[in-house]
Specification:
Elements: E1 3-7, E2 10-20, H1 27-37, H2 44-67, H3 69-72, H4 78-89, H5 99-109, H6 112-121, H7 129-134, H8 136-139, H9 148-153, E3 162-168, E4 171-177, E5 196-199
Parallel strand pairs: 2-4, 2-5
Antiparallel strand pairs: 1-2, 3-4
Length: 200
């Protein structure tokens, strides 16, 4: 799997692994799991970006569920549901999740009718939505940063090309996530060819 690339006067052995596949095929998840497996840590920025994704996905899920026609008629507090639906539908990706909204989401999420409607839509919603909604108040607490498990479970569509380098047994590995694209033109380096390509 090793290849040779010339950088200046030195030959460098570099193992480059290209991950290709459609959206939601698991490429980014493999990259996250490799980060943990090889003893690296996620940066603070990566965790903050993940936190924003978790908040946005939770609001997106509840907006879908609360928009379902089967919800409103059975509610004992339709005005509250309407307020929460509006808050979720207009939630900005870069905003923190207000604890007051998190408390309302937590209470609504425990409703059996909401759970039933959620299951009806589950295949079209971000994976692991239930995991995050189960602890939504904890996620909205001041100072919250996603754990490694939270980062792996969070679903964020990758755009562009993401590269991450690992050193394993004194050998360099570079994982390349092409962000939902099936072609590898932009992922190849002028100095280093791709040694392995995995389609997911």
């Amino acid at each position: 799997m090793g290849i040779c690339s010339v950088c200046g006067d030195h030959a460098i052995i570099l193992h480059r692994i290209l991950l290709l596949g459609g959206g939601n095929s698991g490429k980014t998840t493999i990259l996250k799991q490799a980060t943990i497996h090889y003893g690296l840590s996620f940066t603070r920025k990566e965790r903050l970006d993940c936190r924003n994704t978790i908040y946005a996905n939770a609001c997106r899920v509840m907006a879908v569920v609360l928009s379902d026609s089967e919800i409103g008629g059975d509610s004992k507090d339709p005005e509250n549901l309407e307020d929460v639906l509006k808050a979720c539908s207009t939630f900005e990706y870069t905003n923190p999740l207000p604890p007051s909204l998190a408390r309302k989401l937590s209470a609504i999420w425990k409703d059996s009718n909401v759970q039933r409607v959620f299951q009806k839509h589950v295949n079209s919603l971000p994976e692991n939505s239930g995991y995050f909604l189960d602890k939504i108040e904890e996620l909205a607490a001041e100072g919250y940063l996603p754990s490694d498990d939270d980062v792996v479970r969070a679903r964020l569509r990758t755009t562009g090309v993401v590269e991450k380098k690992f050193t394993v047994e004194n050998q360099d590995l570079v994982f390349i996530d092409v962000g939902g694209q099936y072609h590898s033109g932009s992922a190849g380096s002028e100095r280093c060819s791709i040694a392995r390509t995995y389609y997911l």
